[in-house]
Every structure is written in C-alpha cells, then in structure tokens.
Amino acid sequence: MKEILKHEILEFHPDTLIRVREACGLDAPGRMEEAVGLLRDWAAKQEHFLKKDFDPIFLEALLLTCKGSVEKAKIRLDLMCTMRTFAPELFVKIHVKKDFPQFHKVCKALVVPKMTEDHYRLGILKITGCYPTLFQDLFQWVVIMNEYLKFHDYSIGHICLVDLREANIFDLVTKLNPIELRNTFTLITKGYGTRIKSINFLTPSKTVEAIVSLFKQVLSPKITSRIEVHKNIEEIYERVPKYMLPKDFGGDDISLDKIHDAWMEVHSSEEYIMHLKEMQKAGRTNRAGALRSTTPCSECPAPSGHSTSISLFSSFKTGLKYYRKSNNSFICSNLYSLFDCLTNQGRRIF
User: Fold this and answer.
1) What's the CATH fold of domain 1-285?
2) What DSSP line would sit under 6-51, residue for residue?
3) What pTM does this model have?
C-alpha cells in the first residue's frame, strides 16, 4: 500500500501511514513489501489453511499489529483461522440489518470517524437496555466491525469507551458469559491483533465493579490494568479529545445515531456481505492439518515431541499455565475439554 484510500466514514491524518509504520518498525523503504511477501508465501504453503490467498492489504494490517514481526504474524493468522473452528458462534451473523433485530434498539457499537493526534481510534459502546442474547449479538457485531477494519483502517490501536449510564448493570452481569467474553477478546486481541490502549467505563453506578471484576477473572492482567471507571463525562475529556466525540457526549462530531447509521450502510453493502460469506468458508482451519503442521517458529518453542510452535499445542499449553496460576478451575476444565475434543489426547500431551 503506497497511500491510504479515502473512506466514507474513517478519517486519517496526512502523515498517518508513515507514522503508523514508524511505530511498528516498518518504515524503511521496501520493508513492508518484503514482510508482506514472506507472510503471503508462508500462508500459501500451509496445508491446514483452506484459504491461502490472503489479500496483501489484510496481511499488511496484520503485520502492523505485530510490529513488523513476520513470525508473530504467522501465529496470529493461524489463530484467527483456528478460532473460526473453536468459536464458530462468533461468525454466524453477516446481515447487520436483519440478523440483529433487537441489538440496534438497545445498543450502539461503533468506531468514530476521527482519530487521535497519535493515530489511535476511538470505539464507543453505548448500552441502554438488555435482552437474553445481547452479548452474543454484541460479540458477533464486534467481529463484523474488526473484520472490516482489517481491510480499511490504518491506526496504531484503540481506545474503548463503554457508556453504561442508561443501563441496568446488574441485569447485564447476569447475561454476560465469561467464556464468550474470553473467546471474543482472544480473537480480537490475539487474532485480529487489535491493540487496546484503554477501556473506559462511564457510569456513576458502583455496580460497575461487578463487570470489572468479571473482566479481571477472564482477561489478561495486561488488558485489565488498562480498565478505568469514570463517574461523569468530564472525566472522559481527560482521556479523549472533544473533537473526536459525538455531540451526544459533548463533543464536536456528528451524533452517535448518525455515525451508527453510516456504519450500518457500510456493513450492509453487497461487497462486504460477500466478503463475510467468503471468510465464513475460507477462514476455517482443517484441524488435523493444523496439528500436523511442521512449520518452525523461532519466537515460540514447541512442546516436547512436536516440532510445531504455530500450533494448538503451544496455545493451549500457554493458556493452561496462565489459568492454573490464577486457580481458575472452571476455565482450566474448559481448556482441557476443548483440547480433548480436538485431539482426543489433550491430557497426555500436557
């Protein structure tokens, strides 16, 4: 990519492309093209990938999330495909207008047009109501948004603003499944590679601590250390410039509803729906092939008796070690069950 194409919603600074590449160590002449070529050639050789011809723009975006490391990008691409097998429920819905009949009535989840001076995006989630499958719909909507951003955005990371001022937080907590929360964040941060600069909850209610506590139980300390709770909008202004915020939040941009409507049109385009359909079938991983892969990776030692580090073995072993340390027996048992389901020998390998 030699320049960022103009977008109907997203805005960029004149120096965004070069500054983002500099931050990721990919600004040297020819460095990005070389890295994309290496990653493309590697993907084409993976027998367990049902889709091998990934778009260069997508691969470039993936490399940016890995700060230029081709080896880390391989792991990330493998995980992104594998998650389509592990958590297929995150990829079912693709028609944003007809597949989310209740969601848009009580929830707005979007990325605002402008970016910060240091090239971060602002994502806003505003919840005003609840229903039994709210979070299942929300997580699928987040996947649709991230899938789109991988092809159209160019930024360093994201600031998240969660507005719960009009929500019944206790009701939300009862609907939030920790396993689904973990799976979604794994896909977004480890698969799509979204860098989260901060998560800002906006509500005067003390019951928000119940949600924060749930986040801390299932998400990594690195992410949970970036969670902040704000009692009023004035505190948000200390974290997010007002020129980025919708006028509903006292900012200078158009209203949240207008931004939401614009994203609805973009996500409803025939071109994007076809893309999602293609990724539904092409992104899935042949599990047996993934376990047989012998592609070496210098950054991630393979388990004993297996030459593959870009594999399910490493991912589950690392995850299990983390959750053992946290004494979370519920998640440990789920990791074991999922691994056994895929290999029928999970406990023996561990």
Assistant:
1) Phosphatidylinositol Transfer Protein Sec14p (3.40.525)
2) P-SS----TTHHHHHHHHTT--STTHHHHHHHHHHHHHHT-TTBS-
3) 0.78
